């Protein structure tokens, strides 16, 4: 019966996916994923197409631009920010049956990865792994027959095994970033205290490292989703966030179709509209969509694709307005400053020839990556999908060893020259990459200039009066 019930959703999805024509056997979709292309992008954003990109269902290995550089450049260090992989919802639609998704890892079930079985057996031997508290109390891989709320799914593990494999082929096999006898201090690993971020980080590392030696794997715990460590207190950042949330609220009030849709869905599940909205139904509906499970029904009717499209379309409009109104940008500049500052510190130490922390991995959330993308000026970048990756590469010019450059890649696409600190660079310079000093100047000074006011450092910008 469950098989029969599952078909309607799939059929309705496939009528809506724009088919991209292949050029020379290569799908043009790989470019569409991140930066809208005026020629190929559908004129009206298709909410189901966007949602499926967000699901990031593992399929053929994607083409990526990581590690591309002229031959006289040497890769010095790599800094990887990931969003955890596909997860079970964090919210339940009231009075409906939870979607039945199995969070045990089964090697011959889709989505499949050749390293999945070895990953499970390796993780089950790692119970004595020493991580910074409280990470040492978290399970190292998902293992519930009915997923727990927020738990990583098999899809989420496979997404990051794939990410790791991809980065391994480029950074280790091609560029020899880590020596064969690499040591623990050449990795810097940090994660929030959620099992889904720790497990995503472990899956990526398992795909990435040539030998996953538990003695060399040490994850630090980051209590803040902004990865701001000891510098999280920032009143002005919170003021920007409050204004941004107010903007979101007002936009929602204006959308009568959205209100009507929430009303219809609330009737179906027989709760007040307010309660349904508080249960954030889009989170659960995305899970149904990503896992091809039909939307819930009650004796009053079914939640359906039309409801989903209205809510998802509103989300897309909200993102569009968010970019225009710039309140989120203010929040992002202050929110992303600590982690960007830490990253340039690590890069600067690498330029001095230090050999530790050559590969940094931050396993994080959409609310971590989104402010970083916004702060960098990547306003056209799509909202971080499951298992999104944002990578900073540091390169040295062998012909001029004192010159270092950076590349920035989002889901495999080179977005260096879309950033606010490097978008004018290639108009003035023939160099194929962005000078490291551009990024340093941006983090140390221009991020504060962009906020207006006279602050020239993080503390003053966070405590500015009269904002």
Notable traits:
single chain, 467 residues, alpha/beta, Rossmann fold, 2 domains, eight-stranded mixed sheet, two-stranded antiparallel ribbon, 16 helices, 12 strands, 12% strand, His_PPase_superfam, hydrolase, 2-phosphoxylose phosphatase 1
Task: Report a brief summary of the structure.
It catalyses: 3-O-[beta-D-GlcA-(1->3)-beta-D-Gal-(1->3)-beta-D-Gal-(1->4)-beta-D-2-O-P-Xyl]-L-seryl-[protein] + H2O = 3-O-(beta-D-GlcA-(1->3)-beta-D-Gal-(1->3)-beta-D-Gal-(1->4)-beta-D-Xyl)-L-seryl-[protein] + phosphate. This protein is of the alpha/beta class and 467 residues long. The protein has 16 helices and twelve strands.
Outline the structure in words:
The protein is of the alpha/beta class and 467 residues long. Helices cover 43% and strands 12% of the residues. The chain folds into two domains: 56-229 and 327-463, Rossmann fold (3-Layer(aba) Sandwich); 235-325, no CATH class. It has 16 helices and twelve strands. Strands 3, 4, 5, 8, 9, 10, 11 and 12 form an eight-stranded mixed sheet that branches. A two-stranded antiparallel sheet has the order 1-2. Helix 7 crosses helix 12, helix 8 (256-269) packs antiparallel against helix 11 (305-325) and helix 12 (327-351) packs antiparallel against helix 15. It is globular, with a radius of gyration of 22 Å. It starts with a helix and ends in a 5-residue tail after the last helix. Mean pLDDT is 90; it is low at 1-33.
